[in-house]
Amino acid sequence: MTLLDVSDLWVKFPTRQGLFEAVRGVSFSLGRERLGIVGESGSGKSMTGRAILRLIRPPGIVEADHITLEGRNLLDLTEKEMRDIRGEKISMVMQDPKFSLNPVMRIGDQIMEAYLVHNRVSRAEAWKKSVEMLTDVSIRDPERVMRAYPHEMSGGMGQRIMIAMMLIPNPQILIADEPTSALDVTVQRQVLDIMDKLVKDRGMGLIFISHDLNLVAEFCDRVLIMYAGRIVETCSANKLHEATHPYTRGLLNSLPRFDQPRKHLDVLKRDPSWADAPSEKGHA
Amino acid sequence: MSMIAVNGLDVWYGDGRDLVHAVRNASFMVAPGESFGLVGESGSGKSTILRAITGLAQNWSGIIEIEGQPLSPRKRDREFYKRVQMVFQDPYASLHPRHTVDQVLSEALNLSGFKGIDRRVSQLLDDVGLGGKFRFRYPHQLSGGQRQRVAIARALAGEPDILLLDEPTSALDVSVQAEILNLLTDLREEHKLTYLMVSHDLPVISHMCDRLAVMKDGEIVETLTVTALRNMQAQHPYSRSLLEASVV
Predict the structure, then answer these.
(1) Given Cys at both, which of A7, A12, A171, A260 links A65, Cβ 3.0 to 4.6 Å?
(2) What 8-state DSSP symbol labels residue A150?
(3) How are beta strands A205-210 and A34-38 bridged, if at all?
């Protein structure tokens, strides 16, 4: 079943050198699955995620045939209607918890706010629900964490708190933009396991944006590979290592391999024609 | 004689109830021309060891020797910085935003007391594969990889014997990371350098280094060769868990 359908999405920014096109005609759909979007910095993957939630402000320009959620085109909604979508229908986890939690507000108040905005319940109930949610993301001693401030938390805990906050309104779609890039490998694994469990249990759709090919290959069901604002290749995640596009191959080969020691790593040679080829369709 | 010898190193920050022991009783040796890696999670104290060696962290006890000469915790002299140089993690933060590449490199050469700076600047740029057209650019006109090349050129200005590399590629894309790692491999060979490299990325360390130390909570839990690591001969449970998390 398709939760979200994006058709011919463009994101443009006016600059002194003319219009810069960050995303150039991207189409894809998302079902109840884990969809990975990979690419290097500047490939337009984050802008795609932000455009869906209409988080790109003027002078940035977002154009698309449609971005359809439950039969409604998100581009036609008013700003007020959009606020009901954000959080309740589609949530987003950003890269660094240090910058996305309010530093002068207790963690408990921030999570409760996310719940109270979308539900008419008492504070006591919101508190209870928040503690439950923190337990769900494997935070020990959630009552203490509720009373703490963000600076008292480690990076891994901060990111789990962000996930708790994003999931408490029970959205259908979670957009995770590099959710584990600021974390250590061992903590990374814990956070991914938690996200995986929640996505499975709730039947959510997940858009997982990352630059880490191995991580995406392991964690997602389907992958879109972006280059210069376009999708150059789509494949199922377990087949990523058999990808055929020279860009994807180049990225895979430039990684140091544990089992294959060699003196020099392969260097990606970019072909200008990659950027000109029309965007692949990313539908299941 | 070893190039770097660290023995019973303790490093701490703060005092009173805010005292934090960042490194406890760390010991390791790096031979001349060797490349030695330090791996561990954030907060394990790996960067702190580099900071103690360069004199950026001054509260330490124990013994640090460079080519057999013990260092004092106080300020280092110029001779030291001609021998030991550091490359930092974030190429966006480690270059002065209002200095051109030319100014950055000229200053470093000047401090090392070199003559013929003009010629040496272009030599340095050639060494790191940048070429003359980048000479009068500002950092904001360079990509992340190009900036890291400038930072490496600056470290090479004084013709050091030892480079301390603090996560030199973790802020870069994988394709750019490959270019920088290849550059570091070639430079080590050409200039007979000794590397002490810090990273949280086990595949990167095993690509670049001959031996490595695994750190956890400020302590070195295991020192082993990369060959032993590749053959899955890590002994300590923490090194094993790190290995499992890194090998897909």
Answers:
(1) A7
(2) G
(3) parallel
The residue in chain B having the minimum alpha-carbon distance to the alpha carbon of residue A211 is B173
Q: Which residue of chain A has the CA closest to B186? A: A264
pLDDT at residue B142, rounded to an integer:
86
Q: Quote the CATH superfamily of domain B4-90+160-246.
A: P-loop containing nucleotide triphosphate hydrolases (3.40.50.300)
Q: Which residue positions in chain B have pLDDT lower than 70?
A: 248
Residue A271 has what pLDDT? 79
pLDDT at A256: 85
B178, B145 contact by CB (below 8 A): no
Eight-state DSSP code of residue B13: E
User: What pLDDT is stored for residue A202 in this prediction?
Assistant: 84
Q: What is the ipTM of this complex?
A: 0.75
CB count within 10 Å of CB B114 equals 16
The CATH number of A1-89+173-236+270-284 is which of 3.40.50.300, 1.10.3720.10, 3.90.1150.10, 3.60.60.10? 3.40.50.300
Of A186, A189, A254, the CB nearest to B174: A254
**B42 close to A (CB below 8 A):** yes
Residues forming CATH 3.40.50.300 domain(s) in chain A: 1-89+173-236+270-284
- Dmax (CA) for chain B in angstroms is 54
| Interface residue B231 vs chain A (CB under 8 A) | no
pLDDT on residue B53 = 93
Q: What is the pLDDT of residue B248?
A: 58
